[in-house]
Design goal:
Blueprint lengths: L6 E5 L2 E5 L4 E7 L2 E6 L2 E5 L3 H6 L5 E5 L2 E4 L3 E4 L3 E4 L4 E3 L5 H14 L2
Antiparallel strand pairs: 1-2, 3-4, 3-7, 4-5, 6-7, 8-9, 9-10
Amino acid sequence: MENNRKLLLSFSGIITSVDPDTILYIESRARTATVHTIDGAHLCYEKLSDLASRLPGQFILTHKSFLVNMDRIRRIEREQIILDTDMEIPISKARYGDVRGCYFRYVGLNM
């Protein structure tokens, strides 16, 4: 995905355009994804895996229900990520090693 592309979200007949750089994290519950941005939250009916495939490489799956923008990570702890907004996002035990390794590679490439 190019940097100038927007993520289009559809919910109840309303289409919303979101800049991926403004996304903090995406949470999936009961067939609905909530895209949390710096400007607020947007709902859509889409699988987390489908949203992930339409986003740039700065997004990482930390849990079966959470996709996080690595540009917004302040700290990684054993069971959670702390975003620069102080929001706490869970990391599943099975994904901790992958999340940590992916984040270190991402930060190294973007320094």
